[in-house]
Design a protein that fits this description.
- The complex is a heterodimer.
- In chain A, 64% of the residues lie in helices and 0% in strands.
- Chain A is mainly α.
- Chain A has a single domain, classed as Methane Monooxygenase Hydroxylase, Chain G, domain 1, CATH 1.20.58.1610.
- In chain A, α2 runs antiparallel to α3.
- Chain A is flat and about 70 Å long.
- Chain B is 69% helix and 0% strand.
- In chain B, α2 packs across α11, α4 runs parallel beside α11 and α7 packs parallel to α14.
- The termini of chain B are far apart.
- Classes of the chains: A mainly alpha, B mainly alpha.
- Chains A and B meet through α1, α2 and α3 of A and α2, α4, α5, α6 and α7 of B.
């Protein structure tokens, strides 16, 4: 059993308990005088116009997809970097090939203007 | 005494409870001290920025205004908790807790000085990156649940900014991992101490530069604080949050800054050690406890956050994305290839 992770679990539980506890404890002390105008979403003092959850730019989806590709790349690089010393030159050439393959995709995304916002 | 307890509970349970108790004590010490540092980081920021703008800053509460963070905390604790009528309530409640807890949990793998770390796991660096991505969930949930245009747009912007710069941060640290041969933060610090320059910031200057810029964006700080650009999005994803829920976003953000500074200190600036050539030159410095060096480096980096904030204007969103994707990621990749090449060559020469 990986016992070295137990402190992290305890840490997480204490952090959650701190957050929840402070909010619940505060409930007993803070005042509560809600009325309709106060509970309206903020819109610089005007009455809110339209739906708040509107359609948004497709760019955000593209960024999310690119993120998946490149973050997986970073995750692949991590174990390689840890054992780099043991496998030496072979690992280096292997990884250069891996990075070149990714670079092709990266250049493609760049040329397709995935990083351009207008 | 132990015998007495063992008649009540199962044998071995006392040892287990002691073990848990020690961990609990350690965790509580780290949490309390870290939160105090976070509280004073806000005071420090206000003082530094005030001085840079020829103002005085907080000075009314306590000597030199030192009790200001506590006054702010008490005020926020007693403030009314306003929840918009159309908000998605469960998500609205959960978002600040997730954001805050994920920021705070990152502290568990940081070695503050030699041997003092709550959880000494062998993938410390990976864990830190994972936790910093978790914070993005809190932001997205807050943006979605608030039922406000400003919060929605702020949450979207913030999420895509954080995931973009996450890649740059992750890649900039690969060079350090190659040089240290480990993901454990204590091992990385020791590897730096054994390295001739005593700090990876010198051979890894490219990675260090990429990390510093990306860390500003990752914590939503100026000049990359687009998600909460006051002039257009009010307060971004936490526009609708008030009282202690707002305080939790605030604490989480400053904890995030503290953690980014700590990662930079541990991975690039030698953590709690000082370079050997300095101690050879000035031997008395080696008697200074490690925690002092660690905190001095962290506070210097925190100061840089405030310095940058009061110096640079805000970027536009398209510029922000261009810097992240077109500058930092190629630089980080180049740094990896360069580090690998130098390492292979130096090994080949031996």
């Amino acid at each position: 059993m990986p016992t070295e992770y137990l402190p992290i679990l305890i840490f997480l539980m204490i952090a959650l308990a701190f957050g929840l506890g402070a909010l619940l404890l505060g409930e007993a002390f803070r005042m509560k005088r809600p009325y309709a105008e106060k509970l309206m979403p903020y819109e610089s003092g005007n009455l809110p116009v339209g739906e708040p959850r509107q359609r948004f730019s497709i760019r955000f989806y593209i960024i999310a997809m690119l993120f998946v590709v490149f973050d997986v790349e970073a995750v692949f690089l991590y174990p390689w970097a840890v054992v780099f010393d043991e496998i030496g030159l072979f690992a280096f050439i292997e990884m250069v090939i891996f990075i070149i393959i990714l670079l092709v995709g990266y250049i493609y995304a760049w040329k397709k203007e995935a990083f351009v916002w207008d | 005494m132990e015998k007495f307890f063992e008649t009540i509970v199962a044998p071995g349970a006392v040892d287990f409870m002691l073990y848990i108790g020690v961990i609990l004590l350690k965790v509580i010490v780290v949490v309390v001290i870290a939160l105090l540092h976070v509280a004073f980081a806000t005071y420090f920021e206000r003082k530094v920025m005030a001085r840079m703008q020829l103002r005085i800053g907080p000075r009314e509460v306590g000597p030199f205004g030192l009790l200001q963070p506590f006054a702010d905390g008490i005020k926020l604790f007693f403030k009314e908790d306003i929840i918009p009528a159309n908000a998605d309530k469960p998500i609205f409640y959960l978002a600040p807790i997730i954001f805050f807890a994920s920021a705070l949990t990152s502290l568990s793998v940081l070695p503050f000085f030699s041997g003092f770390v709550v959880a000494d796991i062998n993938i410390g660096l990976l864990f830190l990156l994972a936790m910093s991505s978790l914070g993005a969930y809190g932001i997205m949930m807050a943006g979605w649940a608030s039922d406000s245009k400003f919060a929605f747009l702020g949450g979207l912007r913030s999420a895509s900014q954080i995931i973009s710069y996450e890649i740059a941060i992750g890649l900039s640290l690969v060079g350090v991992i190659i040089m240290a041969g480990s993901l454990n933060l204590s091992d990385i610090v020791i590897a730096q101490h054994n390295y001739p320059t005593g700090m990876f910031a010198i051979p890894q200057f490219l990675g260090f530069a990429v990390f510093l810029v990306a860390a500003l964006a990752e914590t939503n700080r100026l000049p990359f604080d687009l998600p909460e650009a006051e002039s257009e999005l009010v307060a971004g994803y936490f526009t609708e949050y008030s009282g202690f829920r707002f305080a939790m976003f605030f604490l989480g953000e400053y904890t995030g800054m503290l953690i980014m500074s700590s990662i930079a200190t541990l991975c690039f600036l030698g953590g709690w050690t000082i370079p050997a050539f300095i101690t050879n030159f000035l031997p008395f410095l080696s008697y200074v406890p490690g925690i002092v060096w660690f905190l001095a480096k962290v506070y210097f980096l925190m100061f840089c956050y405030y310095w940058v904030r009061s110096t640079f204007p805000r970027y536009r969103y398209d510029q922000l994305m261009a810097i992240g994707w077109k500058v930092l990621i190629p630089l980080a990749l180049a740094n990896i290839v360069l580090t690998g090449l130098v390492k292979s060559l130096s090994k080949g020469l031996q």
